[in-house]
Amino acid sequence: MERNAITLSASETRLAAMLKALGNPVRFRIMKYLASRQVCITGDVVEFTALAQSTVSQHLKVLRQAGLIEGEVEGPATCYCVSAEGLRFLKTQIEAWLPDCCEPIEPASPDGCC
Amino acid sequence: MERNAITLSASETRLAAMLKALGNPVRFRIMKYLASRQVCITGDVVEFTALAQSTVSQHLKVLRQAGLIEGEVEGPATCYCVSAEGLRFLKTQIEAWLPDCCEPIEPASPDGCC
DNA sequence: TCATTTTATCGTAAATTTACGATATAGGAA
DNA sequence: TTCCTATATCGTAAATTTACGATAAAATGA
């Protein structure tokens, strides 16, 4: 895809991966679903999304690899939940990203641009 | 792709679009580049990214449609800058998204999961 | 042991994304 | 008007993503 690999710091790379993972509407919803259930869930995500089990498993893998959720084998099933550390990272990074570059300094500007 | 369209609210849809746009490392970098230059920029994004002009134009379009940047025709060129409103929205949404579901309530839990 | 349950992984087809060159479009200068 | 500059858009090829069914793998219960 990319001829010259774009250089990003480790933090930026992780943040971009998180954003990419959450940019998919299915994963976005899964994430909210997991958050709404404090409790860990497994395969009723399948029921929730009405997608094939293998598809859901794949989405969960993406979220897990992005560090947004955590999975733990619980008997025959796997128990997932939101990663507290991951979400803290996400929020912190977004918060600190463009600190106050975008506050409307001059309200005179109609659209804040140019 | 999706057989059953995933239902998201308008805000969620916009947020997901923003996350998706920023999930691409090239666009991620362009965004930071635009932010570092308070001033509006046009085609030196091309020089910055070392990608084809048409490719950059496409990326800028995605960022613009996501409401993350604003473009304004300035003579023969187009002047881009970060959208203050867009970034405010992004930050607010992320902040409010999972308010305090993920604070480590019980430090006893080794990984905060299950 | 043997079936059952729950997930993960594999292989694959369709859709989407990304990048490029070529081509239009629009504004400014000569 | 005519040329030059700066972008946007079109068409297209390669890569990636997404979804599915089929198949493994792992733990529990009969």
Structure description:
2 copies of one chain form a homodimer. Chain A is mainly alpha-helical. The first copy, chain A, has one domain: Orthogonal Bundle (Arc Repressor Mutant, subunit A), CATH 1.10.10. The first copy, chain A, is built from 5 helices and 2 strands; from the N terminus they run H-H-H-H-E-E-H. In chain A, strands 1-2 form a two-stranded antiparallel sheet. In chain A, a hairpin with a 2-residue loop joins strand 1 (69-74) and strand 2 (77-82). The relative contact order of chain A is 0.14. Mean pLDDT of chain A is 83; it is low at 102-112. Chains A and B meet through helix 1, helix 2, strand 1, strand 2 and helix 5 of A and helix 1, helix 2, strand 1, strand 2 and helix 5 of B.
Which terms would index this structure?
2 strands; 114 residues; disordered C terminus; homodimer; DNA-binding; 52% helix; elongated; mainly alpha; Arc Repressor Mutant, subunit A; two-stranded antiparallel sheet
Q: Give the CA-CA distance, first to last residue of chain A.
A: 33 Å
Biggest interface, chains and residues, is: A-B, 54 and 52 residues
> Largest sheet of chain A, order of strands side by side?
1-2
Q: Output the structural class of chain A.
A: mainly alpha
Mind telling me the CATH class of chain A? Mainly Alpha
Uncertain residue ranges of chain A = 102-112
Named at the architecture level, the CATH assignment of chain A is Orthogonal Bundle
CATH H-level homologous superfamily name of chain A: Winged helix-like DNA-binding domain superfamily/Winged helix DNA-binding domain
What is the oligomeric state here?
homodimer
CATH topology of chain A: Arc Repressor Mutant, subunit A
Indicate the proportion of strand residues of chain A: 5-15%
Residue share in helix of chain A: 40-55%
- Estimate the global geometry of chain A from the Cα principal axes: elongated
User: Can you give the mean pLDDT of chain A?
Assistant: 83
Whole-number count of domains of chain A: 1
Taking all Cα atoms into account, the compactness measure Rg of chain A is 18 Å
Count the E strands of chain A: 2
What is the succession of H and E elements of chain A? HHHHEEH
